[in-house]
Amino acid sequence: MTKLRTFFITLLLFAFSFGAYSQTKISGKVIDERSKEAIIGASVVVKSTAVGATTDSNGDFTLTSSLKIPLTLTVNFIGYQPQEIEVYDASAPVDIALREDVNLLNELVVTALGISRTKKTLGYATQEVKGENIDGKSSTNIINALAGKAAGVRINNAQGDMGAARIVIRGETSIAGNNQPLFVVDGVPADNSQILAATGRDQSRDFRNAIADLNPEDIESLNVLKGPNAAALYGSRAAHGVVLITTKKGSKHQRGLGIDVNAGITLATVATLPEFQNYFGQGSNGKFSYVNGKGGGVNDGVDESWGPRLDVGLLIPQFDSNGKPAPWVSHPNNVRDFFETGVTQDYGISISNADDKFNFRLGANYQDQTGTLPNTEIKKTNFTLNADYQLSKRVKVGANVNYILTDAPNVPSGGSPTGSNYRASSIMLQFLWFGRQVDTKALKEGYTTNRNWNASYYDNPYWESYFNTTSQERNRILGNVHFSVNLLDGLDFRFRSGTDYYNDRRKYKIKTGSSGAGSPDGSYAEDAYTLSESNTEALLSFVRTFSDDWDVDALAGFNVRDNSYANNWQKATRLAAPDLYTLSNSKDPLESANSFQRLRVYSGFASAQVGFRNFAYLNITGRNDWSSTLPSHNRSYFYPSATASLILSEALDIKSNALSFLKLRSGWAEVGNDADPYQLITVYNSQTAFDGNPIQTSSKTKNNPDIRPERTQSTEIGAEAGFFNNRLHVDFAWYNTNSIDQILRVQTSAASGYDYQLINAGKINNRGVELQINGTPVKTKDFTWDVGVNYAAYRSKVVKLDDAGALLRYVIGQTGPQIVAAVGERYGAIFGTAYRRDASGNILIGDNGLPLTDPTNKILGYYTPDWTGAFTTDFSYKGFKLSALIDASFGGSLFSSSSQTGVYAGVYAGTEVGRSAEFGGLTWADADGTRDDGMIFAGTVQSTGLPNEKIISAQSYYAATYGVHEQHVFDASYIKLREIRLAYVFNKKQIRKLGLGAVTVAAVVRNAAILYRDKDLNMDPEAALNTSNVQGVEALTRPTTRSFGLSVNLSF
Amino acid sequence: MNMKKNIYLPAILIAFVFAACSETLDDINSNPNATANPNPAYLLTGVEKQGADLYWGSSADYGGALLFVQHWAAIQYGDVDRYNFTNTTGIVTTPWNTGYTTLITDLNTILEHADASVNTKGAALTLRAWVFELLTELYGEIPYTDVGKSIVPVYNTQQEVYAALQTDLSQALTSLNTTNGAIDGDLVYGGDVDKWRKFAASLKLRLALRTADRDDAGAKQIIAALNVSELISNNSEIFQFVYTARPQNNPQEEHFLTRNDYRLSKTIVDKLKALADPRLPVYAALPEDPTVTTYEGGANGLSNSDASSQGFDKLSRPGAYFLNATAPAVIYTYAEVLFNLAEAAQRGYISGSAETYYRQAITASLNQFGITNTTDIADYLAQSSVTYDAANWKQSIGEQKWIAFFGQGLDAFAEWRRLDYPVLTAGNASLLNGKIPLRVFYPGTEQSLNGTNRAAAVARQGEDLLTTKLWFDVH
Asked: Domains in chain B: how many in total?
């Protein structure tokens, strides 16, 4: 091949020398578009002629053509997309930037265990997202930056950008366990848990998932390994995919100091608030008068808006009128006015360099984010050091270290389900149980005395924000040391030991005098977590080409993994002295709890890849784990995988301009998984002693001493094709995954004696397709237009639960309705109460005019969508780059507890209908006389079979829907304009005069608009409580945000 | 660096890693957080505390049964008071879950524990019978035989449950004997075996009367075999759990520290007023509004607007006796024993005067609430509306028992259903067409987790509705 090329080029040069009489002389330079470094040996040919040149060691070329300008140059270099350039002016040098061809044969990708392989050899789908496409300034959570960027990767950012986000690749495959992928940073697994306060302990907060600690500026690339086929070597935790994160390394600089500086500012505002009615104020039955906010006046303890008509000249005493009648007027923006503009400031600097023996990069970043909720703030400082040193000809050593300090004086509250004891800290609680007339300005003025519109259940929301705070401080170190030794030609030994260790301390303060949040005496709690994972790995690898036909790439290794978790919680339930937040300042004995967990897994693994003539590859892996969490007789488990790749375009030599590349791939893999620690022996918990008498009680979980490892088996088939010199690239995948013998902590009938029992059972089938199409419809010297479309559809279906078939539903969680895995159904069914209906589907109505509830619960929807997709478009013109991302999700459902409350309390828009003759209310009479707020609940009267004609009050009408979950399940489909980004890279020549290497400025809008959603769903369809498997339900969710960011990057 | 060194270095490192892993994997997986071998005394303390919390607490008592029997009324969030609740509401789920997974499971652990004394096992069996009783009277058919044995336990009929509980209590009485070891961890009776015998025998009496309308002969046989002197025989022998200072305070007191949802029911306040009952100032507090100088109850089952329109400050909260950190959770009173004996005498199961027992019962109840003035007591008993009416004994006993049960929602609910007195009227915004619940739903989780067995029980017992009559509730 190379010989042929050399021959060809020589031929060209020969031709060129014969054409020395020509009239047009053209010179210029060929560089790499991204690194801006010179490309040596690129061929530059005048189109439709044999005239050409090869670039020299500086990337420069000169050629002379007999053709007159304008003429077209064709530029080629292996690994780069070919380019055609129109030359209009032969007097100026022609600068040509070649773009690395991601579709071409020799693209390297990072695979399991951090091993780089050429992409064509892989028998499974993998997708890389370059760091430059992850805009660190637009979202402070790295996971949000992945939204829409890869097929089948579903991101759910439930409550604005300050908190947690959930990522699921290719849908749910585990009934009960974690369904999020494993994160691996520079070869070391990193924690991504969202540690929520234990049930019943403290206020809910939207604590960030742990991987959000990373600074996007430090990231070189993200590789998404989708499912077991790609990730079998990671074993246990790979069933849900792996996200490999490679951080930036030092590189050699042509010129300059190697210093990069960046700064950014992002403003966030509330994007999706519910729509409220502004016709009726606080009260009940049309009556209201304030005395003390807890029942002393007329309905002044009522936290609902069924009071008098607003804006008709009424004068009524209110909480801010000192007992005097005051104008009873609407404040349509009273909820929106409470929220502020969040500001994120971000400053970073890095210095990097490299020579033949070493490379290093040292970076620091500081980020300060304030939220849309008053007095919320997260400060984060990252330090990172990557260094490698070639100790000798054969030995290389290195280290990667990330030190991350998160200091959040007050973390924003999140949603909270009905019945949780921390509802008071969810700010939306009192805006959904609300008096619509309340003036937010008056709340702000009176907050230091906790003056509020309601004194029974709520604190002033500003009091709540400024005094009842939850702080979080996290110190994290994530890194590894490694060395490698070249033992023989092609045989290498690599050793790596890495750790992810962090402390996470939270402090919960409730000020004395609070009425909503539990104790009027105030309280103080400390909750501290320590998590660590360490991995030590030794690996032998062997790479050899045996002949022109055969090559082998094999490895074998051993890994020891240790995980530990510790939690310590203490609470002073009533403060003795106000405003003194210490544990000893307590009227009562402290409440406390702690727990520890450890596990260890030994793993041996091996992999061998055989390649034939660079077009056929077979890869076989095997791994055996020994886990401490399993009983000794089931402790050791082995699992294999086999994948194959065939590059048809090479094998059959069918390459043409139309079809540039065609590859088929297929694979089968199995991964095993262990249990959580301490699930073998049933235990009893200790509770706080009663008056000196110790208490022990059942842990309510029956453990299982014979638990076996669970298995996930996956088959994947795919194809990749490039057309028109790879201007159009298509990647298709089909997969079918069966997770069997799952370790389920099944919820069982309480009458069995236990809420949960640990069993090996269950089968969940997950199958789907993915399609990714990238194309470059327009490409000229200055202007490029790229488009990308991705589409994924999958279905996770629960095939069975226990082997005996006794269990029909596994309850994933309950928040109003249950979220269940029901046999024969899609995963994530919403199972709850529905209207009682007759055979023709009419709602049955009782004699009192109110609808009846079916005593049998029904499946009301599924949270898992039918399909997700995204559309990206990038325009580049000279230094400008404009890109937009639209993503969509269709077919999922959402139960909105906010809707339940908003309708019941008469605050949601639409609940004004029927309240008076003005709004279509019917005339009727009760004991109090004639009224005009009558409504009829449409349906059939159960006792008579006739259409319902009984008139009830509007207040009763809307209240009747409260307990019927069916009424509050909505279509969660959406299309969102997720991101618009405009960047400008300054012309190098201009910059150089200023002594700078490169300057980029960018503006980003995130969550720009929701283009489509169910109009009846009065909120963002992505709403959720947290990142657990309990999705498809929201309660009091914090409004999502829209953000606008500006950033500048400078290189010296 | 030569080749040998290149090989030694990895070998040393691997050896180092293995040396660090000297702990066995079994050691690593031994749970440091909880014990696999609990102490029977600690379990017993836990059952008494958690059982009292259930019986006297939010979901089952004042957020549920106390509203059905109209001792309390909701002034806000009145859905349960309007019978507008589903199978996921606390009154439905909490007794079931706490009853089975905490109380019965812990008691079963004591019963199977090698270190538990015979007397401790007797006490545990007695308590277990009490818990099963609460459950069957709330739901009807419930799993009994299969509890702890199957993940999908079959339901037993109520008749089977009552029979099994009598057997269990007989077994407990056999076990409870002063020679059979100490009852450690007992906070109710301080390990007094004789008092435990009295509680067990008193439970036999209560349970036998519950089934008397179904099985007169059976009830008679059980009660006739009891020795009256071996029942709870004075107010110092009441089976009750006494709370202490916060955070181990009485749950009703705790509720009023932070919530504002309930007041006394107009039904019981008006009844006590009509009888000039000296217990009224004990049961009720004067409203917060100083212009209201009488005890006033709130109506049950009103719409939210009507309920709150009554004025939160114009209605009575429970009296200081109940809203005290150290107030007891009363579970079985001396007064109830006497009411039960009155009924047993009336039914001819035992000798003695029903009326005498009835008057003693009322006296015991008054004494229990600190009313000891003999003149006041005599005046009260002398009223024609209090006088025992043998011809209409269900009304006499029913009404007075209902008053004496104040706060004991679950038992007041069971006896109101069985005796059909006092006559209660559903609130005007209630949802059962004027009816009052006669049971509660099976929890929604039973549909998801034990669907087949639940369906079989529903097929035998009648639709899973609030208005379905249970087996023991004949009339």
From this structure: 2
